[in-house]
């Protein structure tokens, strides 16, 4: 629907956009679909950070105040859980390669995935160590640092020292 000033307003079902030549309606869910199909560096890294959070630190264990993710939970299934965890971690490495990570960084990320898989394959003790290693968060952090240094991404933290002025 048009708001009378040439702009766009949104309703509960559709979004109306006015252009000089015509008005068109965007189907419901199109904005969300664009969010998942956006291949920009920042959007891809944000999706990877969300995936790493889900896999490595989505849940807080009561009593011990330790965060674990789906990787530790699915790792409890003897063989299939470890394979599924490594497949998801390998997707993060694939996305890093697609975003232009150098070969040495991809190899380092693959080593993290291999170590996580090897440690996680040990029954029970490996699952406890797997919950502490957090390879997915580690790999996304490596990728973010590389992209920030390369200049493809705005820094998430400001380097330097802060001085309090009172």
From TrEMBL:
TM segment ranges: 72-94
Signal peptide per UniProt: none
Taxonomic superkingdom: Bacteria
Keywords per UniProt: Membrane, Transmembrane, Transmembrane helix
Disordered as annotated region, ranges: 1-21
Pfam families, A to Z: DUF4112
Biased segments, Polar residues type: 8-19
Protein name in the entry: DUF4112 domain-containing protein
């Amino acid at each position: 629907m048009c708001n009378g000033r040439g702009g766009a307003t949104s309703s509960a079902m559709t979004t109306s956009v006015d252009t000089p030549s015509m008005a068109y309606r965007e189907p419901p869910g199109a904005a969300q679909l664009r969010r998942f199909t956006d291949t920009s560096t920042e959007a891809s890294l944000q999706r990877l950070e969300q995936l790493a959070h889900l896999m490595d630190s989505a849940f807080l264990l009561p009593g011990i105040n330790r965060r674990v993710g789906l990787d530790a939970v699915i790792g409890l299934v003897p063989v299939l859980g470890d394979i599924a965890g490594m497949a998801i971690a390998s997707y993060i490495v694939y996305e890093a390669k697609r975003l232009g990570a150098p070969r040495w960084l991809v190899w380092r990320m693959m080593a993290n995935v291999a170590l996580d898989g090897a440690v996680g394959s040990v029954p029970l003790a490996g699952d406890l160590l797997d919950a502490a290693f957090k390879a997915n968060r580690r790999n996304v952090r490596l990728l973010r640092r590389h992209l920030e240094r390369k200049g493809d991404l705005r820094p998430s933290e400001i380097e330097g020292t802060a001085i309090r002025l009172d």
